[in-house]
Amino acid sequence: MKNILIINAHQKWDGMSEGKLNERFQNEITTFFKDKDFVVRTTKIEDGYDINDEVNKHDWADLVITQTPVFWFNTPWIHKKYIDEVFTSALQQKKIVLTDGRLKEDRTKQYGTGGISQGKKYMMSTTWNAPEEAFDNSAQVLFQGKSADEALINLSVNYKFCGFEILAGFHSYNVIKEPQIEKDIVRLTNQLNELARY
Questions:
Q1: Residue 110, Cβ density class (10 Å: 0-12 exposed, 13-18 middle, ≥19 buried)
Q2: Beta strand 121-127 with 39-44: parallel, antiparallel or unpaired?
Q3: CB 122 within 8 A of CB 159
Q4: Spatial separation of the C-alpha atoms in residues 97 and 59, rounded to whole Å
Q5: CB neighbours of 178 closer than 8 A, spacing ≥ 6?
Q6: Could you tell me which residues come within 8 angstroms of residue 63 by beta carbon, excluding any fewer than 6 positions away?
Q7: What is the mean pLDDT of each run of 10 residues along the chain (198 residues)?
Q8: Using CB atoms within 10 A of its CB, is residue 3 exposed (0-12), middle (13-18) or buried (19+)?
């Protein structure tokens, strides 16, 4: 693993979400990998992008990391637009994914097995207003025991569909009411150190 693509999916909301925290996490991840002599490319969706360039970046990357805030239990809408444009174009170009996997002549082939990105990895890194105790706890009303990764399966399943291995995500919790950013940076660095050993 040597080529890293980091996608910053933040969308600015004046007076509410300026993007500084997600930019800080993106910069921490970028610096970490560059200091270890990985080749790093980045995309900040809000600044604009070329669809074909993004397809080629995904084709080039060994590891893709999406750095994103969670707005209303999902990524910002500009990220959904990015996914639709980039992954549809990749399918049309037969890069990272060929088909949905099913074959008329072989009914045992499952939906979601037509990706050609085996060996590539995907990780999400997110910022939540939700507290950590809202997850992995069946007594919690909202997520009913689901992890943060499970709550955002709509994000990782795009990559799984293409054949990527899905890695455990990094999540920074309670970032508005009780932020623990310096501790989160330590946790992130520890997780990246484990990842860099692949």
A1: exposed
A2: unpaired
A3: yes
A4: 10
A5: 131
A6: 1, 3, 4, 5, 120, 121, 122, 123, 195
A7: 95 81 96 97 98 98 97 95 97 92 84 90 97 94 94 95 96 93 96 88
A8: middle
Q: Which two tokens stand for residue 152?
A: 């955002």
Q: How many residues does the chain have?
A: 198
| Tokens (6 digits) for 117 | 């990105």
Q: What are phi and psi of 2, to 5 degrees?
A: -135, -20
Label residue 144 exposed, middle or buried (CB < 10 Å: 0-12, 13-18, 19+): exposed
Token duo for residue 113: 């097995």
Tell me the three-class secondary structure of the chain, residue by residue. Answer: CCEEEEEECCCCECCCECCHHHHHHHHHHHHHHHHCCCEEEEEEHHHCCCHHHHHHHHHHCCEEEEEEECECCECCHHHHHHHHHHHHHHHHHCCCECCCCCECCECCCCCCCCECCCCCEEEEEEECCCCHHHCCCCCCCCCCCCCHHHHCHHHHHHHHHCCCEECCCEEECCCCCCCCHHHHHHHHHHHHHHHCCC
pTM score, whole prediction:
0.94
- What is the C-alpha to C-alpha distance for residues 16 and 12, in angstroms, rounded to an integer? 8
